[in-house]
Amino acid sequence: MPNATGLLAYCRAGFEPELAAEFHARSAELGFAGYAKTQRDSGFVEFICDDALALSRELNASTLIFGRQCIVQFAALNLVSRNDRATPIVNAVREWLTANDLKPFGSVVVEHSDADEGRQLAGLSRSFGNALRGILRKEGLIAPKDNRHEVQLHVFLKDETSCAIGFSDSRTSSPFEMGIPRLRMHADAPSRSALKLEEAFLVLLDANERAKFLRDGMTACDLGAAPGGWTWVLVRNGLQVTSIDNGPLRESLMESPRVTHLRADGFKWSPSRTLDWMVCDMVEQPRRVAERMGEWFANDWCRNSVFNLKLPMKKRWQEVELCLERFEAVCGKPMTVRAKQLYHDREEITVFAQAKKP
Ligand SMILES: C[S@@+](CC[C@H](N)C(=O)[O-])C[C@H]1O[C@@H](n2cnc3c(N)ncnc32)[C@H](O)[C@@H]1O
Description:
It is a single chain. This protein has helices at residues 16-29, 52-59, 86-99, 116-119, 122-138, 194-204, 207-213, 229-236, 251-254, 286-298, 316-331; strands spanning 6-10, 34-38, 44-49, 69-78, 107-112, 152-159, 162-168, 219-223, 240-244, 259-262, 275-280, 302-310, 335-340, 348-355. By secondary structure, it is α/β, with parallel strands linked by helices. The chain has two domains: 6-179, 2-Layer Sandwich (VC0802-like), CATH 3.30.2130.30; 194-355, Vaccinia Virus protein VP39 (Rossmann fold, 3-Layer(aba) Sandwich). The protein has a seven-stranded mixed sheet with strand order 2-3-1-4-7-6-5. The chain is elongated and about 65 Å long. The site of S-adenosylmethionine (SAM) has 22 residues, from α8.
């Protein structure tokens, strides 16, 4: 009987050691033994584990900080014939569904890593994905119409002749192909950083939360705001923003009645009344940022926050663990904390935080 052999997660190229360390730490916490198989700059990590299915349920893959997408792997195939890559995949999928008495998958996606080598497979993934979808549908192995609420089948091309096959649960997986939301840079946005905050709202909040927590007329401050990408995103969401930076904001923002620019130190400034949001993109030591963010919640200066932690070059997973622990300790109250290395993040992660209702 085919077995789930492990978890396979995609990450930013170069961050495989961080994702591997995260897998080790999180699985050990949950009482699962396993080991990570990684290759530097490959853009993915395999975590081999006896009870991968149970681990995936307990882990909630969407909470991985360095994993953009995580699938439960049940087959690894060599696709020896370039003329017929589909047959071995169809056979493996049928075997898995039959052996486990499962209904067809909701849909299929053919993916590759977001690393130099992987990106060369983009064309093949697209064309092969279209062909495979038709074949799997004809064989009754995926639903007659794509259903993203059902379990999704993933075929992950490692190169032209090998792939991993697995699945993800729509409740705990990224809805985006390869875990990457395709956001377009808006012509009016003052900086590319705007995409980071847009992605943070999209990935770290669900649709209900966005509607509830980001409403017209709410108040916010943006620490380290210049040239104004994050402020611009907040204004577009209807918020009234105090933007803190010694540097200048883009002119169009300065003219907005929704923006007040203060030349002040983001580590010292605090509001006179509780704000709905505090966002922070200051380039500083992550521990210093984490502690200051904690003070904001300890003092009830804000209800919600998105902040970035810029990571050092070494021991980045340990630094993240330490910073998040420190942050919660300084907050001194129960918090909802979600962290992710977003697609638009480079050597950094983004954190959403909110004080839990008493
Ligand atoms: C990465 S940029 C922010 C980009 C911005 N989020 C955007 O979307 O355009 C970092 C900013 O933090 C500011 N900064 C660094 N330390 C600061 C401090 N102590 N107080 C205020 N701003 C600070 C810098 O002046 C710089 O403009």
